[in-house]
Automatic annotation (TrEMBL), chains A, B:
<dbReference type="GO" id="GO:0019752">
    <property type="term" value="P:carboxylic acid metabolic process"/>
</dbReference>
<dbReference type="InterPro" id="IPR010977">
    <property type="entry name" value="Aromatic_deC"/>
</dbReference>
<dbReference type="GO" id="GO:0006520">
    <property type="term" value="P:amino acid metabolic process"/>
</dbReference>
<dbReference type="InterPro" id="IPR002129">
    <property type="entry name" value="PyrdxlP-dep_de-COase"/>
</dbReference>
<dbReference type="GO" id="GO:0030170">
    <property type="term" value="F:pyridoxal phosphate binding"/>
</dbReference>
<feature type="modified residue" description="N6-(pyridoxal phosphate)lysine">
    <location>
        <position position="303"/>
    </location>
</feature>
<keyword id="KW-0456">Lyase</keyword>
<dbReference type="GO" id="GO:0004058">
    <property type="term" value="F:aromatic-L-amino-acid decarboxylase activity"/>
</dbReference>
<dbReference type="InterPro" id="IPR015422">
    <property type="entry name" value="PyrdxlP-dep_Trfase_small"/>
</dbReference>
<comment type="similarity">
    <text>Belongs to the group II decarboxylase family.</text>
</comment>
<dbReference type="GO" id="GO:0006584">
    <property type="term" value="P:catecholamine metabolic process"/>
</dbReference>
<dbReference type="GO" id="GO:0005737">
    <property type="term" value="C:cytoplasm"/>
</dbReference>
<dbReference type="InterPro" id="IPR015421">
    <property type="entry name" value="PyrdxlP-dep_Trfase_major"/>
</dbReference>
<keyword id="KW-0663">Pyridoxal phosphate</keyword>
<dbReference type="InterPro" id="IPR015424">
    <property type="entry name" value="PyrdxlP-dep_Trfase"/>
</dbReference>
<dbReference type="InterPro" id="IPR021115">
    <property type="entry name" value="Pyridoxal-P_BS"/>
</dbReference>
<protein>
    <recommendedName>
        <fullName>Aromatic-L-amino-acid decarboxylase</fullName>
    </recommendedName>
</protein>
């Protein structure tokens, strides 16, 4: 394919993507395919000869599109949003066109430095403590990771390295492996599965402490767990606080957890994967009270901000903590001496290679402006509140917990089984996509405003579908005198998460 | 930015990227900027108000482009290639436009299934043993990881999990942490830094065994290390064999290492990040003799194949090994039962989230066809051989080791210091970018055909620059009667790698 064919193909795809966004309401949010549909539809081997781009587009429309779950559909209310925007698509096009690998400054100075610049911009917009910013006088700074999962694991590995060093410095006779075996991490039982997985991957016991009735991990609970473990000779090392849990968007009180971590010299990592974007707006910043006690903070720009996956924005207070843990030294590229201020980002992450991801963050922040991003967040919250109003006006439903951010959890008053039946029926129709959660041991349906394209009329449409299915269930019930089966019991955590 | 503005902006960027590829020879491969140039050039904060896309393009051209190292330039001969192509850029545009997150089948059936299909296609093209393919009767399969670093770490963590299970099954009284502390991994001292880092991140001692004079890890060396460690009560667990080392593209003899690993029940992971793409061509497949003994294999489609980062193609013989180690169970999404044949890919990787990366692999394989991809590999090797011929015709130079793939290592006969001076002078001129390596304790310059755009005339140009700088060094030497300083000694490994 030469440059001119690319111009042709590229323009066709630009047009197609623009039309996709314009006409996305024409698609059912959920696809009507069975497992294996594409394995059967496509050839078993790659073509021998080059093919024409028009054939590829034809197959894309005929075979791929029917199997797509439309995350950008205004009727997608499941999990949490998958960030996307025209600005971000363009940023990635620029990145792919240059196709640089930014593992060191020299490998592409602009790649490293634009990441420093944009992470300072975003950090300031979120009003993070200055210590987290590269432009402060200290060794803090931001880095784009591939996912919140990765950020949580990076934090855990760095905390492990730091704690082991501290213990060995104080007791040079101690065995490194013995120390490692005693390390413990803590989080809430409302955490995302990726937090539990970080413990698994990083070989550290991750204790899921019981959250309170509102889904929050309280300081007292953490304090008790730490004391108990210390009395048994274990070494508390890492705490992951959740600002906006996946299940119900609950906020752990950082002002309770933080001082405990500071006192005990425990690395506090803040997982604000979804809700962190709300700190763009001053009216939500009270939810991060206590942030000054944390060592690292992550929010997924690719979630609630309109930046395409992957763009996990992570900040640390001390970049040396990371580079000490991750630097596998080679003297290969000694031509340019860089510092913590112009980072060699390969030492800030697990892999060596890295794309020019800052470009999409840059195009998004410029095309939207700070004002545009705040408006995006506020509008999504307003739409959720509008939905909550609709639900509240229908006496068959109850809302709980009190909605936060762009998430509304609701259920039928008549119980868990009928609520689950309702969700199943709605999902079967494929017009609206929501998933379940639990709150105070009750089964709830999670409704999240996800798509940047969602308008008031879309919420009306989703609600009309929910109402229609509810009417159907109740009319069936009356006709068939069906009994609601006994309540099936789920633990809170079993149903609480998925989407990071 | 609405859909129409996106059409405008998008077309402008398509044109710009097409022109970039057409006119890439107008740029110096290396930028002329100093550390901090962009931090000084850009505003300290994000704009408050939305900006016009034309201003963004202006700043891209004025501020970003001058700081770009042009990895796609025909004069980029450093590290290894960063894969890219028009077809791949388009594939990513499609992926970004849909912006799905494919952590489960239901989250986007097409995303999961196209990955299964394309990984089967590629596995067949590489002639991997059938057991690695999803379309075989067994539990094997392919998965796209973010980087070879990640694949190596995934292999290590799975090997650890499997070995610990085996030991605990055989000796239920053993302490899990004690077993973990005894696990050992092996690789060659020519390995990429990411392999060493995998040991660091995965908390497993990674022993870098001495390669032979040709840079290959021999079976005898591995056998001796294993026996020694076993006699000390350690548990050999994981071996990373390198097919195409970063330094000199040496190939570890799998037919020597493989049987040892099989006999000792050690997980053998094959890191063919760069050179694996050559197995598209039957004439190079002898280099993977013994592959049947391996448990996992990775090659970076984003390296020597024209697929944009990130697309690390990894295959495993037994998918259950991975899912057992990585599955953090939730019953949240129990609506669709999938199997190892229709994988829930979140259990095949470290993070939870994942993009629709199979799209770019699909567009590339279709636009190139198997023939086109083979031609790409063969042409790049031919160009390297042509370069080697040019070097051999100049008596001041010597080549070594014998070139493999698209890499030629060469040095001045007059010694390491003058060779290093030559590389420094060339780099300073910014017209040609190469980096150093070592071979048999001599400093060598690595010349890799990297860009898909490189033609014979480009090789002529690069060689003319190398010759010009060589002439200058020798004329200076004669005029100044400068002495060549004593040979500075580097260890092989210190200089061997960077680019994965």
């Amino acid at each position: 394919m030469d440059a001119n064919q690319f111009r042709e193909f590229g323009r066709a795809v630009i047009d197609m993507l623009a039309s996709y966004a314009e006409n996305i309401r024409d698609y059912d949010v959920l696809p009507s395919v069975e497992p294996g549909y594409l394995l059967r539809a496509l050839p078993e081997s790659a073509p021998e000869q080059p093919e024409d781009w028009k054939d590829i587009m034809k197959d894309f429309n005929q075979s791929i599109m029917p199997g797509v779950t439309h995350w950008q559909s205004p009727q997608f209310h499941a999990f949490y949003p998958s960030g996307s925007s025209f600005a971000s698509i363009i940023g990635n096009m620029l990145s792919d066109g240059l196709a640089v690998v930014g593992f060191s400054w020299m490998a592409s100075p602009a790649c490293t430095e634009l990441e420093v610049v944009t992470m300072n911009w975003l950090g300031k917009l979120l009003d993070l403590p200055e210590e987290f910013l590269n432009c402060s006088s200290g060794p803090g700074g931001g880095v784009i990771q591939g996912s919140a999962s990765e950020a949580t694991l990076v934090g855990l590995l760095v905390a492990k390295d730091k704690t082991v060093r501290r213990f060995m410095n104080n007791n040079p006779d101690l065995d490194e492996n013995e120390i490692k075996a005693k390390l413990v991490a803590y989080t809430s039982d409302q955490c995302n599965s990726s937090v539990e997985k970080a413990g698994l991957l990083g070989s550290m016991k991750m204790k899921l402490l019981k959250a309170d009735a509102d889904g929050c991990l309280r300081g007292e609970t953490l304090k008790r767990a730490i004391e108990e473990d210390k009395s048994q000779g274990l070494i508390p090392c890492y705490v992951v606080a959740n600002l906006g849990t996946t299940g119900t968007c609950a906020f752990d009180p950082l002002h309770e957890l933080g001082p405990i971590c500071s006192e005990e010299d425990i690395w506090l990592h803040v997982d604000a994967a979804y809700a962190g974007a709300a700190f763009l707006c001053p009216e939500y910043r009270h939810l991060m009270k206590g942030i000054e006690h944390s060592q690292s903070f992550v929010t997924n720009a690719h979630k609630w901000l309109p930046v395409n996956f992957d763009c996990s924005a992570m900040w640390v207070k001390n970049g040396y903590d990371i580079t000490r843990a991750f630097d596998v030294q080679r003297i290969y590229l000694d031509d340019v001496k860089t510092t913590i201020k112009i980072p060699d980002y390969r030492h800030w992450q697990m892999p060596l290679g890295r794309r020019f991801r800052a470009l999409k963050l840059w195009t998004v922040m410029r095309i939207y402006g700070a004002e545009g991003l705040k408006t995006h967040i506020r509008q999504q919250i307003e739409l959720a509140q509008y939905f909550a109003k609709l639900v509240r006006a229908d006496e068959r439903f109850v809302i709980g917990p009190e909605p936060t951010m762009a998430l509304v959890c609701f259920r039928l008053k008549d119980g868990d089984t009928i609520t689950r039946q309702l969700l199943e029926n709605i999902t079967q129709k494929k017009k609206v996509f929501m998933v379940a959660g639990t709150h105070r041991d009750r089964y709830v349906i999670r409704f999240v405003i996800c798509s940047r394209l969602t308008k008031k009329e879309d919420v009306d449409y989703s609600w009309s579908q929910i109402k229609k299915e509810t009417d159907l269930i109740y009319s069936d019930k009356i006709h068939n005198k069906a009994q609601i089966p006994a309540l099936e019991q789920f633990t809170s955590r079993e149903l609480c998460e998925k989407s990071k």
